[in-house]
Each structure stands twice: as C-alpha cells, then as structure tokens.
Amino acid sequence: DVKVTQSSRYLVKRTGEKVFLECVQDMDHENMFWYRQDPGLGLRLIYFSYDVKMKEKGDIPEGYSVSREKKERFSLILESASTNQTSMYLCASSFIEGVTYNEQFFGPGTRLTVL
Amino acid sequence: DQQVKQNSPSLSVQEGRISILNCDYTNSMFDYFLWYKKYPAEGPTFLISISSIKDKNEDGRFTVFLNKSAKHLSLHIVPSQPGDSAVYFCAASTTGGYQKVTFGIGTKLQVIP
Fold this sequence. Notes:
Chain A is an all-beta fold and 115 residues long. In chain A, 0% of the residues lie in helices and 56% in strands. Chain A is built from no helices and eleven strands. In chain A, the strands form two sheets. In chain A, strands 2, 4, 5, 6, 9, 10 and 11 form a seven-stranded mixed sheet that branches. Chain A is globular, with a radius of gyration of 13 Å.
C-alpha cells in the first residue's frame, strides 16, 4: 500500500513564525503536491513538484515556499505565518506514466492554527 | 473563477436508495475526471475516474457519467450505505502537464440508516 505521511496532525504557531510542514511518501512517486482545504473553497493547490529540486507554483502560492531535496520528501514552508494561513494542509503524491493520469495518494493532513 | 463546480454543498439520502452527486466544469481542455471521497480527519482517497473518450465508467456500486457537451459529470452510488457518508470531491485534469488537478469544493453526503 502506498503510504503518504505528514509530520504533524495538529500544529499551533504564532503569527510571524517560520513553519515547516513535512511530507514523506514511500512509493517512489515522481510527483508530489501540497494543497490546503478550507470550508467552502475545497482543495486548492499551493505548489507541486515533478522531480527532485523541481517545483511549480499552483493556484495559491503566495506566502509559501517548498523544498524537495530528496524524491520521497516534499516540504512546505510558511516563511512568516499569518492568521489567514490557518487551514488543513494536505500532501499528495502520484506516478508519472507517460501521459496517462494516475491517481493522487493523500496524506492524513495537518491542521495548522496560526494565532 | 471556479473551473470545477459542485453546486450542492450537502445531500441526504436514505440507506438503500440512489445517491447522485453532480459536478460541472468550465474548462474545455479538461479531459480526465475523478471523484475522491474524504472522511473527517483523513486525507481524500481516490474513488473512480473517467476519461473524456468515455461517457460512463462503473466500479461496483459507483458509476460516473460524463456529458461533454454539457460539461457535466455525475457520480451515482447504488445502493447507498451509511459508510458512504463522507465529503465527495469532483476533480478534473488535462493529460500530461504534470497531472495538475483542479478540485471542486465538495459535497457532503449523509446516508441515513
């Protein structure tokens, strides 16, 4: 079974703090994604990566950065946390197989609260 | 501008009856569509998908229908079971392009025993 793990289930941080959210997958997937889920807004893509050290902006990258130094690990960084970044953060991964779409496998999520 | 729209935030259905969840999209470049199910405190899990070259895909109790001319898809669950109670996300993608997926806002399904 594919397993995507996230470093914390719940996190509480102060405004202005630098926050690291870690995601690890164990299936040698090329693609990794970071989403946030908010009521009434669904899942919105923040950043994704299709290879080590490669990254692409998603729909809402402002206030975030990412790092992918190893294939299995994708980190989301909030450089200076703000209250509007309080959200559920979901990491996902998937294979690349030619041009055929492959399902994304999600981690359990990190509920981040910024006070 | 939402490219994938789920206009019903919630749906209640009696156990054993059919659940129909609807989804509309605006981007004509989408050619692959998926449904994900999400339980509270868990990540979404893939449920079923359909390519734009088909108009129907079936997997057990779950069937997805695609109407390209109307840019509409629907998920049918028959018969509905209490364990189906979850939030269902419709998603769309274009093949290639690193498989970036656009999700709808979700529909919360409650199946009443």
